[in-house]
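B., you asked whether I could sanity-check this one before it goes into the benchmark set. Here's the sequence:
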Amino acid sequence: MRGFGRLLPVLSNQKTNAYLKEIAELCRINKHLTFHLARHTFATTVTLTNGVPIESVSKMLSHTSIKTTQIYAKIVDRKISDDMNTLKSKLGLYSSKVT
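And here's what the prediction gave me:
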């Protein structure tokens, strides 16, 4: 029985991409949406830039190696700046923001 023991049905990559294409058309999104793009966006924009540790992201993506997750972990300048401000705050340094 396919999908047995799952909360939601497990779709094939091909079927998921077809649904994403349909959603994009309905929403007038002029971008080629794919399951891979969704995973990458989740990993970078949703989790990593919001402070979720890469080890947790790796588990959420079911990667067996942290090196695989690091491919998704394109760190943006804002994230680095935020991390430095957090470190500065923890160390009790001055209160102005790093730019």
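One thing to flag: The longest helix spans residues 13-26. Otherwise nothing jumped out at me.
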